[in-house]
Structure formats: C-alpha cells, structure tokens
Amino acid sequence: MKVLVVDDDALAGEMIAAVLEGMGHEAVLAEDGVDAVGRLNADSSIALVISDMNMPLVSGIDLFRELRAQGCLLPFILLTGDEPAGLLAQEPRLDACLAKDFTLEEHLPALIGEVMTRHARG
C-alpha cells in the first residue's frame, strides 16, 4: 500500500516512513500541506494519508478539511504532540488521531490496520 506522509520535520517523516516500510508499505514524503495536495493529485495509487498536526502554512487538520472539501475520502491519520482526544472531538470526521511520541512505532501499525479495515467495510 502507498502511504502519503506529511511532516515538515524531515527526521520525523523518515521515522514514520521507516515504520511503514517495516510493515511492507511504500511511503511517499511531503514536506507540507501544499506539497501533499500536489502529490495526491499526481498519484492516484496513494491509499492513506498520515499527517503531522503542527506545520507551517497548512496545519494537518486544515489539510484534512481541504481534502474532504475537494472530495478526497482517503483514510486520514493525524499525528499530534497535543492531546489526540481533543482533536478528534474538534473534528469527528477524522479517521484517527495518534500522539506523536515515543510510542508511535508501537501504536501506528495497529492503528493503520484498524483504519484500513473500517474503510474497507465502507
């Protein structure tokens, strides 16, 4: 599966890409929301978006809202240094929100599985 990883921190993006590649997925990196929209428009094989919340120009939540406004219904996981439950309450259409902390490598694979299973069911 091809996954778009959106993060303005190159090191964090590479770490997420390593987790995905360890799961057998292909990671496509975007440095911000504008880059992400361009990559999604150019590559219809992307099946999932994982985005950082706090980025310059376009935040992760704003990227999610813009994609939904454009009719893009790809599964979307938001990573945040803030409280994930608060962001899910703020935007209930989000597929998932995960704390961007030392447990990310442990929790992200299971969360991807849950999100993709939910989307497969419709």
Please provide a written account of the structure.
By secondary structure, the protein is of the alpha/beta class. The chain has a single domain (2-115), classed as Response regulator (Rossmann fold, 3-Layer(aba) Sandwich), CATH 3.40.50. Helix content is 48%, strand content 21%. The chain is built from 5 helices and 5 strands, in the order E-H-E-H-E-H-E-H-E-H.
Spell out the helices and strands N to C. EHEHEHEHEH
Average pLDDT works out at 94
Tell me the major beta sheet. 5 strands, parallel
Helix content: 40-55%
Task: Please identify the oligomeric state.
Answer: single chain
Q: Keywords, please?
A:
122 residues; alpha/beta; Rossmann fold; five-stranded parallel beta sheet; 21% strand; Sig_transdc_resp-reg_receiver; Bact_response_regulator; Response regulator receiver domain-containing protein; CheY-like_superfamily; phosphoprotein
Give a brief outline of the structure.
Keywords: Phosphoprotein. The protein is of the alpha/beta class.
Give the topology.
Blueprint: E1 2-6, H1 10-22, E2 26-30, H2 33-42, E3 46-52, H3 60-69, E4 76-80, H4 84-90, E5 96-99, H5 104-121
Parallel strand pairs: 1-2, 1-3, 3-4, 4-5
Helix pairs in contact: 2-3
